[in-house]
Amino acid sequence: MPQENFDTGLLWYIIAIIKSSQCYSITKVSLLVVTKLLCTLSVAFVANWSVAARADAPKVVTDIAPIHSLVAQVMQGVGEPQALLPRNASPHGYAMRPSETRALQSADLVVWVGPVLTPWLDRARDTVADGAVNFVLLDVPGITVLPGRELAVFADEHDEHDEHDEHDEHDEHDEHDEHDEHDEHDEHDEHDEHAEHDNHDEHGHDAHDHGADGQDPHAWLDPSNARVWVAAIAGELAKLDPENAAVYAANASQTDARLAQLQTDLDTQLTPVRAVPFLVYHDAYQYFESRFSLAALGAISTSDASRPSPARLSELRAALKAEAVRCVFSEPQFSNALITALQDGADLESATLDPLGSHLEPGPEFYAGLMRSLAAEVFDCLN
Ligand SMILES: [Zn+2]
Predict the structure, then answer these.
(1) 90 CA distance to ligand 1 middle (Å)
(2) CA-CA distance, 217 to 119, in Å (whole number)?
(3) Residues around the ion ligand 1 (C-beta < 5 A)
(4) CA dist., res. 275 & res. 201, Å (int)
(5) From the CA of 222, how far away is ligand 1's center (Å)?
(6) Same domain, 76 and 178
(7) Separation of CA 277 and ligand 1 centre (Å)
(8) Residue 108 alpha carbon to ligand 1 centre in Å
């Protein structure tokens, strides 16, 4: 009920009581007391109603901590979103706990990267409350979506796809290019991969579902995408909670300014190490590399973090011999064993990169903290 109607209704009710009751004819002092009492009650009602309105802030559930942080920034002063994933868990293949299923059941809005990152969340969507808004970030118009890479050594992939202009990166992903990419992946991948997934589902190998439509899901590692999302999330929240629309819009515009500054800072910081080749554990940083023009040589595992084949590892060994790779980055979500094996005999430094920022406190400041710590790790190891 809108507050105005409520107040007007209550006022008429109070007047009606005063008019119809004996208190109309009793002494002025008593009337004053009664009026004061009713006024106090009225204020108490309105105050309660305001508390109820705050408690009624949309229940927003997100997938991973970086997305939680972006939503938390937009909701500041109104409410807080809830992240489904524990910070130390890899989103590629996860089993929800009962408390997480319950959160999903009572959500008004689910903001998540998409099925390509968290196929388990896609399958859990029947548990989402009817009428809850399903907001897939990879589908938001205006973001840069990069195709997933398959090869261990990225340069080989660049050669292979040159004719499609796929890697005309940095803003040059115009609509035309993106369309081509999607079409291409639909053609190549869908049929085979679906058959494959059915198989994997039976055996619980969830990680392989991801990549079904050829997208690289790690799109949060491009601050330009985050800027588009923040505006879109504010719009979605305003639809669910029009009373706080102005708050969401103001928060989104402040967040946008901070993200723009973040991107400029990282660009300046990373410029000196742009040409230095490095290797990552799983192919999670394409958006980061692309945005800041870094020279990643390859990844031990593909973007769905599946176990690399021996052939893939020997390709990487050969590339490591041929190129002056400075650094190989491990990840806290995965074992170091393969990195240690690759380092054997190669003059290779190692450092840790964490695309999920599991060492950082979740909340509004998390996103910038994550991006700055990634940039610092990359810079320190490559410099
Ligand atoms: Zn990943």
Answers:
(1) 7
(2) 11
(3) 284
(4) 41
(5) 14
(6) yes
(7) 20
(8) 27
> 101 and 32 in one domain?
no
C-alpha 94, offset from chain centre: 16
Distance 164 CA to ligand 1 centre (A): 25
Identify whether the C-beta of residue 300 lies closer than 8 Å to the C-beta of residue 308: yes
**At a CB cut-off of 8 Å and minimum separation 6, what does 357 contact?**
65, 66, 87, 366, 369, 370, 373
* Structure confidence at residue 159 as a pLDDT band (50, 70, 90): low
Going from the Cα of 285 to the center of ligand 1, the distance in angstroms, rounded, reads 8
pLDDT of residue 236: 97
Rounded to an integer, the average pLDDT of 258-269 is 98
pTM: 0.73
Max avg pLDDT among 76-90, 167-181, 199-213, 286-300: 286-300
Question: How many structural domains does the chain have?
Answer: 3
pLDDT of residue 213: 64
CATH number of the domain within which 246 lies: 3.40.50.1980
Residue 109: strand pairing partners:
60, 133
Range 264-278 average pLDDT: 97
Report yes or no on 264 lying in a domain: no
Instruction: Give the distance (Å) from ligand 1 centre to CA of residue 126.
Output: 24
Q: What mean pLDDT is predicted for residues 41-64?
A: 60
How far is ligand 1, taken at its centre, from the CA of residue 281, in Å?
Answer: 10
Per-residue pLDDT reduced to its tens digit, 223-245: 999 999 999 999 999 999 999 99
- Note whether 51 and 64 are same-domain residues: no
Q: What is the mean pLDDT of residues 331-350?
A: 82
CA of 77 to the centre of ligand 1 (A): 31
Domain that holds residue 84: 60-259
CA of 284 from ligand 1 middle (Å) equals: 5
Distances (CA, A) of 380 to 27, 246, 352, 374: 82, 41, 11, 10
Query: 226 and 366, same structural domain?
Result: no
Please determine, for residue 367, whether its predicted confidence score (pLDDT) is greater than 80: yes
Confidence of residue 42 (pLDDT cuts 50, 70, 90): very low
**Is residue 226 in a domain?**
yes
Question: Helices 28-55 and 3-20 sit at what angle, rounded to 10 degrees?
Answer: 160
